[in-house]
Amino acid sequence: MIALAGFTQSAVNPAGPQSAHIYHLWHLYLWICVAVWVLVIAFLIAGLTRRRPQPQTPDTKLRRSVITATAITIGILFFMLVASIQTGNALATRSFTKPVSIEITGHQWWWEVHYQFSQPDQEVVTANEIHIPVGRAVILKATSQDVIHSVWIPNLDGKIDAIPEHVNTIWLRADKPGIYRRQCAEFCGMQHAHMAMLVFAEPEPKFERWLADQRSGARSSAGAVVMRGRQIFENAPCLLCHTIRGTGAAGTTGPDLTHLASRTTLAAGTMPNTPGNLAGWITDSQRIKPGNNMPPINVPSEDLQPLLSFLESLR
Amino acid sequence: MVRSTGIMKRVTKGVLACASVLVLATLASSCKRESRTLRNEPPQRGLYDAARESTNEPGGKLPKIGMPSPAEGNAYAISQGQRLFDWYNCSGCHAQGGGGMGPPLMDRRFTYGSQPANIYDTIVRGRPNGMPTWGGRIPEFQVWQLVAYVRSLSGSEPSAATPGRSDGLEKKTRAQLQ
Amino acid sequence: MSADLLSTIDQYEIDEAAAKRDLENSWRAPGGFIGWFQEVNHKAIGLRYIVTAFIFLIAGGIEALLMRYQLAIPDHRFLNPNLYNEIFTIHGSTMMFLFAVPVMEGMGIYLVPLMIGTRNVAFPRLNAYGYYMFLFGGIFLYAGIFLNMAPDAGWFAYTPLSGPQFSPGKRLDFWAQMITFTELSALVVAIEIIVTVIKLRGPGMSLDRIPIFVWAMLVQSFMVVFAMPAVMDASGMLMMDRTIGTHFFNPAEGGDPLLWQHTFWFFGHPEVYIIFIPGTGMVAELVTVFSRRPIFGYTAIVLSIISTGFIGFGLWVHHMFATGLPQLGESFFTAASLLITIPTGVQFFCWLATMWGGRPKLTVPFWYVISFFIIFVAGGLSGVMIASVPFDIQVHDTFFIVAHFHYVLIGGAVFPLLGAIYYWFPKMTGRLQDDRLGLITCWILLIGFNLTFFPMHWLGLHGMPRRVYAYSANSGWASMNALASIGAVVIAVGGILYLVNIFRSKRDGGFSGPNPWQAGTLEWMTDSPAPRYNFLHIPIVSGREPLWERPSDEIPLVIGLRTDRREVLVTRTLEASPDHRYVLPGPTIWPFWVAVGTGIGFTGSVFNMWWFVLGGFICFVPFVGWFWPHRNINFVPKMEKPK
Asked: Which residue of A81, C298, C452, C500 is most buried, as measured by CB atoms within 10 A?
C-alpha cells in the first residue's frame, strides 16, 4: 500500500472540543492511576524488604492504615466519578447553531453518507469519505443496514455504534484543518479491518465548494474514449449495484459512484484512488479485500482502459 | 506418587479415548457445507446451455449432461444467494418465494426444471412471459449462489446449510413449514 | 461451642493400621480402562479438570501465537480474514469457557474438601457428570473446528452478525451449544461446592474459620448459579433464531440486537469475577502462608469477596457504553464499576498489612503473588479508567481494552493460579518442584507478559481497533505490534518451562512430606500426596489456622465414622456442629452414560431440535441406573460408640 501521508487516527491527538474533553480526562486519570500503582508497588516492596521491627507491628496500627487507605481510595474514586460525569455532560451539551447534519449508514463493508439539509435538492449522497467545515458543529447520525458497525473518529470524538433499526446521534467539531482517518470499531465480519473512511476538515469556503460539486450529477464529457467507457459501464453488471447520477445506473446496494474520482481512497479506505488500483479493484476485488460484496467483473482487456477513463472523469 | 502417575496415565488414556470416539462420530460432510470460497474461478464467458428442459427422451436414456453447481449444499453460497435475491430484486416479482408477478419458488413445481443446471439456465437465459435475461449482468458464480438459494426455498438443499430465517421481514421457507 | 466439644473428647485407643487398611480398601480407585469412566473421587476429577483445562490453555496459546504472528507485520498475508476471524473467536472462547472457568473449578473441586476436612464432595456422581460435560463440550467445539465449522463472530458473538443471515452454516450453532455444555458443567460444580462447604465441613469450622480460598470458591459458586443460566438463555435464544426462525434479535420483526448484548453481558461481567475471585482466594492463602502470620482483616476480606460478588452483577452495561444508551443510565454503571474497586482495594490493603505485620519469605509461589500485584493493579487501574463513559467511548473495541482484560485476567487469575499450583503441587503429587527453574519461569512470564500487553495500551490510544486481521504500514502501529509479538514468544517460552518443571518434578522432585511450607490449613495435615480418603480421621478445628494453633498430632479428631464404607460427617451450617453421618456412593459408570446421552441430545439439536427429546429418552436408562436405590446407602441416625 502506498503511503498516504498527512492523516492521523489517534485519540491522543485531539483536534476538536469533544476529543479534547476526553483527552483532558484521560490525562487526569493517567496521573492518578500511575500514582496509585507506584504507591501500591512501593508499599509492597517496602513490606517485603524492610527490617522487621521488634516487637511486630500491632494489629491496631495495621487496622488504622487499612482504614485510611480505604478512605483515601473512596475519595479518589468519588473524585474520578465526578470528573467523568462532568466530562460526559460537556460532551452531551449541544450549544451550537446551524450544524452540518450527516447520516452515516454502515454496510458490510463500506459507509454510505447522506448530508441532510432542510431542502431535499440540497442533499448530498456519497460514500466512504466525508468533508466537514472547520469550526462548525457536525451532527453524525449513525445507523446500519445489516450488522452492528461503529462510527469513530478518534481525533474528533468518541465512538457511537451503528445498529440496524436504531439511529444514534453524536455531535463533534473540528477546530483544526486536517485529514482524520477513522475505522469501523465494532467487529462486523470478514472485512471489518478494511472499513475505513477519511474525514477532511477544511475551511468553510472549500467545504461549500465540495458540497456544490457533490450535488451535481456526473460530468458529461465529450471525449470518445470516455463515451465508450460510459457505454461499457452501462452494459456491464455495474449498474445493478451502483448509482451514477446522470446515467442509467441507479443501483442502491453498492456505493454511489457519481463523484468517484473526487475521492482519495478506494474500497473504504483500503487503497489510494489511482487508475491502477481501480483497475485491480474492478477485475479482482476478492484478492484485495477477500470476502467483500463486490464481485470480480470480467472486463475484456480492450474495454478496461475506456472504462477507467470514464470512471476517472467522474470528479 | 505411584498412584498419581496412575491417575495421569488414566487421565490421558481417557481423554484420548473419548476424543477419538466423538470425533469419528461427527459427520464429515460439514467440510463441504461450511467451506467458504471467497475468490471464485474466473468466469466463463457467454451463456452455457446447461440442461434439458424436457424429461421426455425419445429412443431411450440419453447420457447425462449439465454443469455441476459449485454451490450445492454450501451454506455460505446459499447465504450469499439470500443476499443477492434481494439485492438484484428477484423479490420484486417472486416476493420472498411466494410469488407475485412471477411464479412461486417455494413449491417444487418448476416450469423449466428444478435441477441446479435448469435453474441456472432460467436465470442466465431468461424465459418467456417475463423472466429477464440476467446473463452478462450477474457474474456466473453469483448465479450459482442464487440457484442454490432458490432451491433452498423449496427445501431441496440440506437443512443444515439453509438459513433459518433472514434478518428482514418474516418469510417462511418450505424447510421451515415442515 | 468448641469448648463444649473439646470437653467431650476422650482418649481412645485406635488401631491406626487397621483403620488405614479399611479406608484404603473402601475408597480405592476403580481399576482398568473402564475404571477411568467410573471414577468419582474429587481429587481425581479435580485433577482431570485442571489437566484438561491446561490442554485447552495450550490450544488457546497456539491460537494466540498465530494471531500475533499475523499482526507482527503490516499487511501480512499469513492468515486470510476468514481464518483470522475464526482464530480470534476460538482463542477467546477457549480461554474463557474451556480454560479459565474450568481450571478454577478444578482447583476448587480438588482443594475444598481437603481444606474443610472432609473426604469427598457432597455429590460424587454429579461431580463426574460435570466433568464429562465439560470434556464433551470442549471436544464438541474442537471437533467442529477440525471439520471446518469454527465459529467466527468473536467470543461474544454480537447479533445480527451471529444471526442466521450473516453467519451461515452451523458454525455459530456449535459455538452456542458449546456454551450449553460448559455452563451446565459450571453449574454442577457450583452446586457441589456450595453444598459441600455448607454441609460437610469438619466439626468446629464455623463460618468465620473457613479458609479464604474456600470462601472465594463459595462466593464464586453462588455467582455461577446466577450468571450461567443467563448465558445459556442467551445462547438458547440465538440457537432458536438460527434454527427454528424465532425473532429475538431481528429488528425488522420487533426484536432487538441489543437484547443479545444485555443478556450476554449480564453473564459476561460476572463471568470475569467468577474467574478472578478464586484467584484472590489463592492469593490470600499464599500471602498468609508466606508472611508466616494469620491473614490480617479476615472479616473484611470475606465481606469484600461477598460484596464483589454482589456488585459484579450490576456492571454489565459498561460493555455497552458505545451503543447509544441514555447517559443517565450509563452513569449509574460508571458509578457501580468504580464502586467495585473498593472491596478489591480493601483486600489488597489487608494483604499488604499481612505482609507488613508478618515475616515474608520470598518463595516461588510468593513471586507469583508479587507478579499478580504488579500486573493486576495496573489492569484494575486501567479498568477504573474505562469505567468512565467519555474515556471508554474512545478506547472501546480497541487494543486498549485487549490490554486491560489481559492484565486483569492473566494478572488476576493466571498468575495466582500458577503460584497456587506450585504451592499445592506437593500435596497433589508428594514432590517438590525445582525452585530455581520456578523462579526463572516466573520472571520470564512476568517480563514476557508486560512486553506483549503493555504496548497494546499505546496501540489502542493511537486508534488501532480490535479484531482486525491486518493494518496498513502507514498507520504507525507496526513497531508496537512487533514488540507485542516478540513478547508472545517469551510468554510461550515461560509456559513451556512451567510445564517442564511440573513433569520433571513429578518424576524426580524431592519428596515433600505432609507440610513442606509449614502452612496452617487443614490439607497440610494429611499425607502428600493426599490419600484417597483425605484424612484418616476428620479433624476438629478451633481456629482459622489449625496447624499453627497446635502441633499436628495434638489436633482433636473425630472417630467412630465407619471405615468399611464411604462415610462422611455432615455438620450444621453456622457452627459446623456434627449433625449426622452420610454414606457417599462409590465408583459407578452411570454418570458417564448420562453425559453421553446429554451430549448426543445437545449435539443433535444443533441440526434438528427433535434431538433434545431423543437425548432425553437416551438419558432415561442411565438415569434409572444412577438413581436406583442401593442397599448399602442407609441413613444412620445414631453415632455408634467405638469399642
From this structure: C452
Q: Does the predicted model carry a pTM greater than 0.90?
A: yes
Q: Quote the pLDDT of residue B96.
A: 83
Please indicate whether, in this complex, the C-beta atoms of B6 and C29 are within 8 angstroms of each other.
Answer: yes
Q: What's the mean pLDDT in C127-137? A: 97
Model-level ipTM above the cut of 0.90:
yes
Instruction: Go through B117-153 and write b for each residue having 16 or more CB atoms within 10 A of its CB, e for each that does not.
Output: bbbbbbbbbebeeebeebbebbbbbbbbbbbbbbbbb
Q: Is C422 near chain B, with CB under 8 Å?
A: no
Interface test with A, best of C356, C371, C399, C467 (most A CBs within 10 A): C356
Nearest CA among C78, C85, C152 for reference residue C467: C85
pLDDT-derived band at C5, boundaries 50, 70, 90: low
Residues of C in contact with A38 (CB under 8 A): none
Query: Angle at CA C563, nearest 5°, toward C559 and C565?
Result: 135
CATH assignment of B75-177? 1.10.760.10
Neighbour tally for C236: CB within 10 Å = 17
pLDDT of res. C636: 47
Q: Residue A105's beta-bridge partner residues?
A: A112, A143
CA distances from A217 to A125, A257, A314 (A): 11, 10, 9
Task: Give CA–CA dist C214/C521, Å, rounded.
Answer: 11
Question: ω before C622 within 30° of 0 (cis)?
Answer: no
To the nearest whole Å, the CA of A164 is away from the closest chain B CA by 10
Q: Where are the domains of chain B?
A: 75-177
* pLDDT (tens digit per residue) in C459-477: 999 999 999 999 998 889 9
User: Do B43 and A287 make contact, defined as CB atoms within 8 angstroms?
Assistant: no
pLDDT at position B16: 66
C168: amino acid identity, one letter: P
Domains, chain A, in order of start with CATH, read: 1-50+59-215 (2.60.40.420), 224-312 (2.60.40.420)
Per-residue pLDDT reduced to its tens digit, C43-102: 999 999 999 999 999 999 999 999 999 999 999 999 999 999 999 999 999 999 999 999
Pairwise CB contact (< 8 Å): B7 & C44: yes
Segment 108-137 of chain C within 8 Å of chain B by CB: 135-136
